[in-house]
Design brief:
The protein contains five helices and nine strands. By secondary structure, the chain is an alpha+beta fold. Strand 8 and strand 9 form a beta hairpin. The radius of gyration is 45 Å and the shape is elongated.
Length: 214
């Protein structure tokens, strides 16, 4: 079905463009929202009468795009992401990430207009991304991805393990010393008992001899 766009609609086209679309799309979406009008003799005449107005808006869009292009190419966008010690990101920088960061800088750029080589960035470093603006105008945006190391519970546990090991080893050493000391005491006591037994045995014949003499 042929229609004339009454408003810009990315990526379909701009105001005044003639497009072929599905009937359901036109009747259920484009016409109810005033985005497009049916292509016929009446609407063609209507848009012909608005031709100069439409062209003036296009000129303004080109000028605006040129200004945005200049600002974007003078900008280096810094993005901080969680990363490991090797520079690999926990996650990735996507066109959504860049769109959000640009919005913080005052730039309203549609996500689908931002093209990243390889579709995403997964390591810290410096990169160039393409931002499509209007018609053939596009800006080359410089981004710097900065890694932010995350201290995890695993790292804390790993750091604590040697200390626990040292404490455990110290406890084992103390226990061994106590055990050795206890064993030494038991040995000394046994030796003393044995000595007493020997003394008693030695004294017994003497006592028997004295009885015999009497």
């Amino acid at each position: 079905m042929k229609v004339i766009l009454n408003k810009d609609l990315s990526p379909l086209g701009e105001e005044g463009d003639v497009k072929d679309v599905a009937k359901g799309y036109a009747r259920n979406f484009l016409f109810p929202r005033g985005i497009a009008l049916p292509y016929n003799e009446r609407t063609v005449k209507l848009f012909e009468s608005r031709r100069e107005e439409i062209e003036a808006r296009k000129v303004q869009k080109r000028n605006d795009a040129a200004g945005v292009k200049e600002k974007l190419e003078a900008l280096t966008l810094e993005i901080t992401m969680p990363a490991g010690a090797n520079g690999k990101l926990y996650g990735a920088v996507t066109n959504q990430t860049i769109m959000d960061e640009l919005a913080k800088q005052g730039f309203q750029i549609e996500r689908k207009r931002i093209e990243i080589p390889g579709s995403s960035v997964k390591n810290v470093g410096k990169y160039k991304v393409l931002v499509k603006l209007y018609e053939s105008a596009a800006a080359e945006l410089a981004i710097t991805v900065i890694g932010q190391e995350i201290k995890t519970e695993a790292k804390k546990t790993a750091a604590a393990r040697p200390a626990r090991k040292r404490r455990d080893e110290a406890g084992q050493d103390e226990a061994k010393i106590d055990a050795d000391a206890g064993a030494g005491s038991e040995t000394a006591a046994a030796e003393a008992t044995a000595a007493e037994a020997v003394s008693e045995e030695a004294a017994a014949p003497e006592a028997d001899a004295s009885k015999a003499t009497d």
